[in-house]
Amino acid sequence: MGKDKEYITTSSLEDLIEKAGGCAVVDGGFATQLEKHGASINDPLWSALCLINEPHLIKTVHLEYLEAGADILVSSSYQATIPGFLSRGLSIENTESLLEKSVKVAVEARDKFWDAVKNVPGHSYNRALVAASVGSYGAYLADGSEYSGNYGPDVNLEKLKDFHRRRLQVLVEAGPDLIAFETIPNKLEAQAFVELLEEENMEIPSWICFSSVDGENAPSGESFKECLHIINKSNKVKAVGINCAPPHFIESLICKFKELTEKAIVVYPNSGEVWDGRAKRWLPSKCFGEENFELFATRWRDSGAKLIGGCCRTTPSNIRAISKTFKERS
């Protein structure tokens, strides 16, 4: 990493939370929004495919979330991995360039939006931060294992660190404000990220988000007490939480996490629809309607979450409603 690079101070995430009235708004679902703009992402690379074919659509979606009131943009690199791109016949140089692009497109969108609104009298926006998304090993496998945590007997701590190391280096060198480790299904991968942050001496803050399929534990069946015990030892991880889980799990998980950590809690659940990883399709929600999302988000904030947004199938309209509700109450 270049020694002349100016990294964001570790307090900037905390500063943003404070400016946002005690709870900052993360953006929402990416793939669904890309599809609304005509992107075809039925592919193992998922939304990362647009980095190759249609990066302008990624920028458009980022701008939509900024206009909706998002305080944090998450880059389009969740499914963007070096092995994944190499398997498509790309060179290592092109692969690393695409990883960089995922961050730079988000930064360009943030800067363009902020330049447009910062001098507008009475505007209610904060200058957004850009989080570089690092999806789990299971996301690369694209076999649903990010929802089971079952990576098989051949995947150990060193293999996970080797898989993620160069990707993490490239993303950080591209200049994000923070790192978002997302949809982590087991303790082993959380440990891999904690150790990588130390080994690579990463100077920007990060969060680690687990998924959950039962509302009680990590997908692997390991308790969150076990998982957070590892993360609590790291001073480089500034927030911990849940993403890509059903929204009706969130309130009780916030309460659980508050008992297990002093770090800020971040939550960005799915819309309530359920992803069938094997059939590759969404099943409708039976217990949660879109119109309830911002109402539940207020309860999540009141329960102690400091960063709230949406994951799969959530939209700018959800984020706009959350942002508007929070600003009215702050």
Could you describe the 3D structure shown?
The protein is α/β, with parallel strands linked by helices and 330 residues long. The N terminus is likely disordered. It is globular, with a radius of gyration of 18 Å. The strands form two sheets. Strands 1-10-7-6-5-4-3-2 form an eight-stranded parallel sheet. The protein has a two-stranded antiparallel ribbon with strand order 8-9.
> Roughly how many Å is the radius of gyration?
18 Å
Task: Please provide the count of β strands.
Answer: 10
Average pLDDT confidence is 91
- Give the number of helices: 13
Helical/strand content category: alpha/beta
- Unreliable residue stretches: 1-11
What is the assembly state of the chains in this entry?
single chain
**N-to-C order of helices and strands:** HEHHHEHHEHHEHEHEHEEEHEH
Query: Helix proportion of residues, in percent?
Result: 40-55%
Report how far apart the termini are: 39 Å
- Strand proportion, as a percent range, falls in 5-15%
Largest sheet: 8 strands, parallel
Give me the side-by-side strand order of the main sheet: 1-10-7-6-5-4-3-2
> Tell me, what's the shape?
globular
